[in-house]
Amino acid sequence: MAGRSQTREPQMHEKLAGSSSSLQDVYEWRSMLAKFTLLFFGIAMWYKWPSYYGYSFLVLIWILDGGLRGFRQTIREPFVLAILVFCAVLALGILWSDYPKSGYFRWNKYFVFLVFIPLLSLLNKERLPWAIGGLLIGYFSVFLTGVYQWVTMGEQGTSIPDLIRMNYLHFSVMLGIGVILALYLAGTNNNRKVSSVLWFLAVLFLFIQFNQHGRGPLLATVLTSVLLIFMLYRTRIKILLGVMASLITVVLVLAYSSDNFQERVAHAQNDIELIQQEKYATSLGYRLAIWDIGLHAIAQKPLFGHGSGMALSSFEKNVETYKGGLYTHIWKEPKFHYHNDLIEIGIYVGAIGLMAYAFLLWSWFQTLRAHQLGIFGAALVCYAFLAGLTDTTLIYNSVPTLLLAITAIAISWQKEHGYPIHT
Fold first, then answer.
1. What is the pLDDT of residue 21?
2. Which of 126, 94, 127 lies closest to 108, judged by CA?
3. If phi over 0 gives left and psi between -120 and 50 gives alpha, with beta otherwise, what is residue 326?
4. Which of these, 47, 68, 222, 343, could form a disulfide with 294 (CB 3.0-4.6 Å)?
5. What's the Rg (C-alpha) of the chain?
6. What per-residue string of b and e applies to 273-302 under the rule 16 or more CB within 10 Å gives b?
7. Which of the listed ranges 99-113, 231-245, 358-372 does the model predict with the highest average pLDDT?
């Protein structure tokens, strides 16, 4: 009996060792798949067909990595809960819409916020460099493509047939995010050389943005930059005044030297003159007209709205009769939207949708603030809100994903390292 017992003990140890080795192999494979997925996602999210694979792989690897089991932990983040509430409200809006007649082509893009859940769950100390690397490669590949096309062909935005297409508004918002992030990192970095490079990048992004046609995103960038600099240096008055003066000087020089900006200002002045004559067939006039119609439509159904996907339908119902048909001559885009996140959401799901949107922005800030990133959180949310006042920024291709990826990386870095990413 003693001999049998002694024989079994080595066998048990061998089985346990083999089981432990097998589990270790599985963990290493999952970790490696997660790293490559995060790298691929950061690059692929900018491109038409690769982005579908990027989102699919991200969700699949998240499930294989035990994301569903850890969902209870993930939902403790206020931003995650707010995303679920916001998407649930939009989904409920289908119940009082004319779907499928109303169509899905625009409103469902708000559901891209759900990608934040697997993205945040997959990140850890070992995977962070892969996620950051993918994001930087993807961002600068699109940036350099856009700059090349602007310099050599005079094109606005970025366009590669069947692969990537960002119009000038999307590209301008992308540049604005780069400005805000570079300014924050430059203002908080203790390394002078690194800080100098980041200041240079911020000015470079701003220079390119001044040469894009987007006026709304540019204004949002400048206003948010002023707010960010104030928050960063508010306790150091001399530095605050110096940096603020430098920013104002840079903005004035870029505004004066940019023919594109001067042209857009001239167009705006001409638009205002035509608006005073009740002529709205211009860029600015068109936006003012559809905002007016949109606010009127929200007033018709203020609590629950017209239903998700009802942007075009609500416009068509009101444009002929509102103010005696004053706006009937303005053009109707094939993929109509109200060029304003607040109005768009208000049309869909009324006051409950706007409250869900406000909760989303507030929770976004609170989550970053809870991880000692309050200044960055305030700037990021402020930019998303301001840019969304002149267009539906949160459904732009890749733009919300970029914001979510930056947020997830910043939170994960803080969790894993215990200090902000700039230190």
1. 59
2. 94
3. alpha
4. 343
5. 25
6. eeeeeeebebebbbbbbbbbbbeebbeebe
7. 358-372
Per-residue pLDDT at 356: 97
CB 308 within 8 A of CB 97: yes
- CB 360: neighbour CB atoms within 10 A? 25
The better pLDDT of the pair 322, 11 is held by: 322
- Characterise 259 by phi-psi region: left (phi > 0), alpha (psi -120 to 50), beta (else): alpha
> What residues pair up with 382 in beta bridges, in sequence order?
none
- Torsions phi, psi of 160, nearest 5? -125, 115
d(CA 228, CA 233): 9
Task: State how far the Cα of 348 lies from the Cα of 307, in Å rounded to an integer.
Answer: 4
The one-letter code for the residue type at 18 is G
C-alpha span between 206 and 251 (Å, rounded) = 8
Token pair recorded at residue 145? 């493509």
Q: Are 261 and 215 in contact (CB under 8 A)?
A: no
The two three-digit tokens of residue 293, written as one number: 């119609």
> What is the mean pLDDT of the segment spanning 286-299?
92
Distance CA 271, CA 257 (A): 22
The predicted-structure confidence for 192-234, as pLDDT tens digits, reads as follows: 899 999 999 999 999 999 998 888 999 999 999 999 999 999 9
CB 394 within 8 A of CB 171: no
Average of pLDDT values for 335-352?
Answer: 91
How far CA 235 is from CA of 135, 230, 232, 320, 379, in Å, comes to 33, 9, 8, 55, 17
In angstroms, how far is CA 10 from the centroid of its own chain? 57
d(CA 409, CA 80): 14
